[in-house]
């Protein structure tokens, strides 16, 4: 999945959405459609000004409200229309969705521990991380393959989906994807095109000194 095509010197910016009320509550959102808080909108506007300076060629986003609203701030500055794709949604986590971190650990302790060990786990009866990568990474590559030389693609998505996509594009085995640290709200990672495929150039970048809240959502 790490093979590159199209123009050379391309760049993929994977941008996590702004803050939501469930992030603050450490509540697992998954595919639940939660809106940004006022602070989340402000984060998106601030980050968009920085990302606009990269002169992106294409913006693609998850169709969930928190990602779509984040992407809209960059669209307003660049004039680019956002392409929304449900394949970029966060991991569906079944019974875990809506629960706080403490509630998940209390009710699904063994399942949570196995996931943290890197084992393939259907959290809450939902998707495997590899299944998330199976749907999200091809969408990212499809848009990246159309970039011009030295072009930039901005992908607005969710913490878990971004991590699995990075892992897949770098060719890492899935049990090692957890070694990629989480993204703070409205921070981003950058993949650059190298001779052997995609390389991680920056991770959890941005000037927002915020803790990572609700990594997989």
Automatic annotation (TrEMBL):
Signal peptide: none annotated. SMART domains: PGAM. It comes from the Bacteria. InterPro entries: His_Pase_superF_clade-1 (IPR013078), His_PPase_superfam (IPR029033), PG/BPGM_mutase_AS (IPR001345), PGM_Phosphatase (IPR050275). It holds the Pfam family His_Phos_1. This is Histidine phosphatase family protein.
